[in-house]
Amino acid sequence: MRTTASILHLDLDAFFAAVEQRDKPSLRGKPVIVGGTGGRGVVSTASYEARKYGVGSAMSGREARARCPHAAFLSGRFHAYRATSKAVMQVLRDLSPLVEPLSLDEAFVDLAAAGLPDLDVATVTEVGEQLRARVHDVTGGLTATVGIASSKFLAKVASELDKPDGMTVVPPGTELDLLRPMNVTVIPGVGPATTERLRRAGIHTIADLELVSEDELVRLLGQAHGSGLWQLARAQDHRPVLAERETKSVSVEGTYDNDLTDRRLMEGLLTRQAREVGARMRKNGYSGRTVTIKVRLYDFTTLSRSSTLPSPTDDGGTIGRVARSLLGDLDTTGGVRLLGVGVSGLADWVQEDLFGDEPDADEADEVVLPEPPRRTWPPGADVVHDEMGAGWVWGSGSGVVTVRFETADTPPGPVRSYRADDPALHRYEPPAED
């Protein structure tokens, strides 16, 4: 923990939904939910208007529709999110060379490297306000919430206190006064299981946690987790802002509309995912030793199994063989709704011919895999009509596409319906990224 409030955490408010409302004037001020459009989809982001009805991230689309049936459910436009995020990250890098992105919509900034005249509370407060205004300008009206404190942990906690479109600065020396009344769930890594263990021990707030010895927490939660919580309960966090975050794993997963019961089909899907993981690793110059599969059963029980190789690999065939062997240890007779393959323990070198005596990977891959149906006109997708111009898919079905013609720079526009095969209607194709 620093002696100055010099770490800033910026979080774009309801980012995906906010981008959709920006680009779709008719949705401004109305409930918008990104994700959850399919039978088994989950909510990625809900606008604040939808959150009033209890809709939140990671909620099933079915539950979200039950809570807020009048919301606009959109499939998401990642080209728009990436472009907006890129503009925001550039603003942050213009402020300081030390920017640590956590995702498309949040990042840490080291203000000690920003060349400010000083790091007094008044100075960093002014910088935070100017930054929020700048983000609003470059994003076309999106808002961000900022937290500024003496550590990453405190800055992230602070950025949650005045949402949306707010800012909290934690003056040095007041960190524990802020933390003590808070529930233990504000600490990263304290999920439902840890919360229940702490509750059984009579620990509910950070003030309660502060009274517990490190040895007792280690006995309760294990060495790494217990020691980490003991330190954070005392506002002890010395992690630096890292401009380049180390990639810890590469993974691919898929959720399926119908439960999978055919073991050979599951093996084929894992094989295809393993090839994609290998291709991504080679593209980025990675290799890895630990192969993990993720399996979500019909009843939402999620299982994972891992195996560590003697040397790193980036070969999709090798990854696939290990993944298939791990699947063999699991009982999937009730049906599987999600499968995934990941590789961790990343390195920058590869051991050649790791399984040189084994058969070619493709020998195990002779299976016809069903391609998931591609929705030509998913809700929210950008389209262009030869006469009407730019718009977005309001809905589709039974061979008909309904489009609302509007953009971020127009007022709410008219709605028109067309045949799904109308030659004048086209999906918008974003320009290729550099």
Automatic annotation (TrEMBL):
GO BP annotations listed: DNA repair; DNA-templated DNA replication; error-prone translesion synthesis; SOS response
Annotated spans, Disordered: 405-434
Residue stretches making up the UmuC domain: 7-191
Swiss-Prot/TrEMBL site (Substrate discrimination) positions: 16
Cofactor stoichiometry and binding remark: Binds 2 magnesium ions per subunit.
Record field: compositional bias (Basic and acidic residues): 418-434
Cofactor: Mg(2+)
Entry-linked InterPro entries: DNA/RNA_pol_sf (IPR043502), DNA_pol_Y-fam_lit_finger_sf (IPR036775), DNA_pol_Y-fam_little_finger (IPR017961), DNA_polymerase-Y (IPR050116), DNApol_IV (IPR022880), IMS_HHH_1 (IPR053848), Rev_trsase/Diguanyl_cyclase (IPR043128), UmuC (IPR001126)
PROSITE patterns referenced in this protein's UniProt entry, alphabetically: UMUC
rRNA-binding recorded as keyword: no
Top-rank lineage group of the source organism: Bacteria
Keyword terms: Cytoplasm, DNA damage, DNA repair, DNA replication, DNA-binding, DNA-directed DNA polymerase, Magnesium, Metal-binding, Mutator protein, Nucleotidyltransferase, Transferase
Catalytic reactions of this protein: DNA(n) + a 2'-deoxyribonucleoside 5'-triphosphate = DNA(n+1) + diphosphate
UniProt-listed NCBIfam families: PRK02406.1, PRK03348.1
Subunit structure: Monomer.
Family: Belongs to the DNA polymerase type-Y family.
Protein's recorded name: DNA polymerase IV
Organism: Nocardioides oleivorans
